[in-house]
Design goal:
Layout lengths: L1 H28 L6 H7 L3 H10 L2 E2 L1 H6 L10 H7 L1 E2 L1 H15 L6 E6 L6 E8 L2 E6 L9 E6 L2 H11 L8 E4 L3
Parallel strand pairs: 1-2
Antiparallel strand pairs: 3-4, 3-7, 4-5, 5-6
Helix pairs in contact: 5-6
Length: 179
């Protein structure tokens, strides 16, 4: 009887341990990852996007090197959000689409800096209280990362870019992409 009682206690102990283990694993599996649509629907201003870019987004150096000197196939905003990384074109598209979802009055657009030697560079422009701002997270150069402005024009941002880029000091031009 003693050995049967001991075995029953061991079996009960194992069942309790397994139950706790499964409960723990289940609880860990519920760490909810919000979708792009759900996350953006909760954001109220460009500051929310800026905070996410600062905290969660990282520059993808491998992708940058792989497509150096060319324009890679751009990622959809949902993919950039999921990967939490990208390069100039990915960050610009992500910011444009996200800002226009948050508040269409931002009138976010993609601006392209035309660079003679090397690949063109893409950033996101948006309007806030009638003033022009640039959101730039798709670069390895810390002097250009962030939200910059207000500017009176794209030309004024071009001057800022030339002054703060470590190697590009003569941008041929700057314009908006047609769409």
């Amino acid at each position: 009887m003693d050995s049967q009682t001991g075995q029953i206690k061991i079996i009960r102990f194992k069942i309790k341990c397994l139950s706790i283990l499964f409960l723990f694993l289940f609880a860990c599996g519920i760490i909810f990852v919000r979708s792009y649509d759900d996350t953006v629907s909760r954001w109220k201003s460009y500051k929310d996007l800026e905070t996410w870019m600062e905290k969660d987004f990282s520059f993808d150096m491998e992708r940058f090197k792989r497509f150096e000197g060319t324009l890679p196939p751009p990622r959809a905003p949902e993919e950039t959000f999921k990967l939490k990384s990208g390069i100039y074109i990915d960050a610009a598209i992500f910011a444009k689409e996200t800002l226009n979802r948050i508040d269409p009055s931002y009138k976010a657009k993609i601006a392209v800096l035309l660079i003679r030697q090397g690949a063109n560079h893409y950033v996101c422009s948006f309007m806030k209280e009638g003033k022009l701002f640039i959101m730039e997270y798709g670069t390895p150069y810390k002097t250009l990362v962030g939200v910059h402005g207000p500017f009176h024009s794209l030309e004024e941002y071009k001057v800022f870019f030339e002054k703060n880029h470590p190697t590009v000091k003569n941008v041929q031009g700057i314009t908006y992409l047609p769409r």
